[in-house]
Amino acid sequence: MPGPGSHSPTSSRLSPSGNLPKPPPEGEDHSTGRPAGSQSDQLGAHKPAAFTGALEPSRVTAPDRGNAAVRSRLRPGGECVIKGLRLRYHRADEANGILDQLVDLYLEVYAGRGEFYSEDRYRRQLDLHMQRAGWEVVTATVDGALVGYIYGFPLPPQTRWWEGIHEPVPPGFTEEDGTRTFAVSELLVHPAWRRRGIARALHDELVGSREEPRTTLLARSDNVAAQTAYRSWGWNKISKLQPSWENAPIFDVLVRDDAGSHTF
User: Fold this and answer.
1) In the predicted model, what is the mean pLDDT of residues 150-165?
2) What pLDDT shows up at residue 23?
3) For a surface tag, which of 41, 119, 138, 162 has the fewest beta carbons within 10 Å of its beta carbon?
4) Which residues pair with 182 in a beta bridge?
């Protein structure tokens, strides 16, 4: 969704010879052959294509988040979902080194979906969002190749995020102070790697690490797989919103109340 501390970079340079590894058969665990994942991580368009970019391994860049590389590739019972899956945090200064790969994956996921999903508009969106205090992205790689990511940032006072929201909404719903709401702007998984739990791992890693009492995102009403996933992950629809970007569709406004107050 478009909206109007010092940290040293990590090694997130591109590997010029990397190729997207071949995923295990759809619906099977990479290491055991048992069913894994669901339609919940089919969050985007449906046009698979080869991905040739790759990332070199880098450490978890937010130590207070814990060891994402280990924790988020495990199911609640400790079973490994995908062998070689790595999740990594990147702040804005670190993400500049993988910006082209973030854009390439976005274009892969939304190929053929219309002018709103153009490269130029998405680069402008990223440029605006990466300037926000607290912006961060979590990338998912398999054997060094980028297969998905999620990014977001806390909503500051006088944010433009809520411009275009449809009334009515609960009293005070759009009021922000910089600590109330974390906005998830994108959650993407490469078409060849969906239905393997990667979207859920990314979602739980970033959303579960936040201290804000609520989280919000925008989802297309016609994206049935995403809507189903978000409902099962504790999200509620509050209203609709049309961003100010040219050719922007109307999105459902979803909110997850992590404080348990249910006041949204």
Assistant:
1) 97
2) 73
3) 119
4) 154, 215
Backbone angles phi, psi at 91, to 5 degrees: -80, 175
Asked whether 219 and 252 are in contact (CB, 8 A), the reply is yes
pTM value is 0.75
Distance CA 240, CA 254 (A): 9
Give the number of other Cβ atoms within 10 Å of residue 56's Cβ: 14
CA 200 from centroid of its chain's CA atoms:
10
Q: For strand 136-142 and strand 236-241, is the pairing parallel, antiparallel, or unpaired?
A: unpaired
Q: Which domains does the chain have, with CATH numbers?
A: 39-257 (3.40.630.30)
Which run of H or E residues covers position 91?
strand 85-91
Sign of CA dihedral 236, 129, 60, 199: positive
Q: What is the pLDDT of residue 69?
A: 43
Going 107 to 109 to 111 to 113, the CA torsion angle's sign is negative
Give pLDDT tens digits for 121-144: 999 999 999 999 999 999 999 999
**Mutual angle of helices 119-129 and 99-109, in 10-degree steps:** 130
| CB-based contact 199:40 (threshold 8 Å) | yes
> In this structure, what token pair is assigned to residue 13?
């340079």
Q: Which two tokens stand for residue 21?
A: 């590894």
**Residue 97 reports pLDDT greater than 80:** yes
> Do residues 139 and 87 make contact, with C-beta atoms less than 8 angstroms apart?
yes
